[in-house]
Amino acid sequence: MNIIDSLKTSLWPQQIAAFLTIIGIPIFLLKFVFYKARHKIYFDAKETYHEVKLLDHPNQPQSFWLHLMVKNNGYELSKNTEAYLSEIWIRDNYYIKIEDFRAPVKLKWAHEEDIYPIDILPKEKRRLDICYICENEKILHLMSKGFPSGSIKNKLIPGDYVFIIKVVSENSLTPAEFYFKVEWDGTWRNIKGSKYVKSFSLYDGGPLKSFHLV
After folding, report:
1. 0.90 exceeded by pTM
2. What is the mean predicted confidence (pLDDT) over 79-100?
């Protein structure tokens, strides 16, 4: 029996192939999960508060902006990345969902001319425009185009809000989600952004399920 015939009758080739398959599947899955675009949304006061003169406003007032940062934690380009405002909650003794806001709306990426999807490089971050106020105004402007029919406008009164922000891309596995708490009493520059801790009930009186953000 020659060497070729011996290899044909031996179990070693099959065993080696099976071994490579066994170790190859987990490696593929790990690469698929961790290599794909993955978004982290966060608020950092040093990066996301911004005061600037609003040049496209008739009176060109000072404006004060709140942004969120979106980082691509994956190892591939995040393609056609879009951000949405999916829900709005307002505090009135307890937080209640604004029911007139019926459909998610796209938000604008900072430094872009209009509301377009963008690509985010691996391990890089981009600033997302959320809202702004103007000096001598009592309007909270949301950085989105006019809302769909039957929804609220993109201008809100002063108040305490929770905005639910979602970010998706063409090649991300799941949407990233962030609960953004925005508090404003209507006075100039006195607007505060922070992460809303979901483990707390939105209802001050106790764990009422219909008012949980979970």
Report:
1. no
2. 92
